[in-house]
Design brief:
This protein is α/β, with parallel strands linked by helices. The protein has helices at residues 35-45, 60-70, 110-113, 121-125, 136-140, 142-157, 175-185, 196-203, 219-233, 282-295, 300-314, 326-333; strands at residues 3-7, 11-15, 29-33, 49-53, 55-56, 80-81, 88-92, 101-105, 130-134, 161-165, 191-193, 237-247, 250-259, 264-267, 271-273.
Length: 343
Amino acid sequence: MAKVVTMGEIMLRLSTPNFEKFIQADEFDINYGGGEANVAVSLANYGHDAEFVTAVPDNEIGECAVAALRKYNVATKNIARCGERLGIYYLESGSSVRPSKVVYDRAHSSISTATAQDFDFDAIFEGADWFHFTGITPALSDSAAKLTEDALIAAKKHGVKVSVDLNFRKKLWSSQKAQSVMKNLMKYVDVCIGNEEDAELVLGYKPGKTDVTSGELELEGYKSIFEQMIADYNFEYCVSSLRESHSASDNGWSACIYKRDNKEFYHSKSYNLHPIVDRVGGGDSFAGGVICGLLDGKDFKAALEFGVAASALKHTIPGDFNCASRKEVETLAGGDASGRVQR
């Protein structure tokens, strides 16, 4: 199995139980998660040697976050203990026509103030096959953006393949700021993952007629964007999830991929996700599944189908982490969506 490194922020997640609104809640359910940590958990769950790199405060809450990763066999030996605090996010889970809401409390978190001096990137990337990051970490602070580029430079020095999930977060930075930072990082990237909003707000590519809020997909628009992105950045693959958001509880879910070498575009099978248990982490489970498929040596179409199936299953699982097994993902990708009791 391959060695995969991901780097970013793990946070304490406080979510309202039973789809309550914040104002109704007298207690919160506790989980830990975050974009790159979620990917690491998925890959470790599928049997790969996954390591997560971050910074947490040197206190009990920081250790709880590390323990949450260790539970799922993610390597944590290069997590730095420094900084003031662990970031927090509050989640109000939506239902039907009411959307989910996220409130961040992550200013001055440990990873946002960490620098390359807190990590030995040469040791971290020694023997690594893959490095994954997202657009969330550079959005945290100028220091975190510099840390991300330092990690990318080290990864490339060690011949590591790099993937990015563009992951635009409007509560963290503006599109203008995102483009000024992220476009510079694309020269290190081999596999670019994102949706139509990410492509526009992070890299400036217009998605054409596609409108996720109306549930309309125009696949030719994605193909055109992918061709432009590869022409500009020479990505090996461009990948996008495709969400048709009919309501908070009812989504259509599929994905598409473009392979640079043979200029082939492929759209996956579609899933009807209804009812959705928890969509947070859905994109991360998709990225983790696609990366797993490519690392397994699957052809790019099969890798995409594995990622879409993995993410479809994640929408049925509460919490940030995708706990679906490799066998469960392969069963669904193979066409068995019956949901019959396994005895």
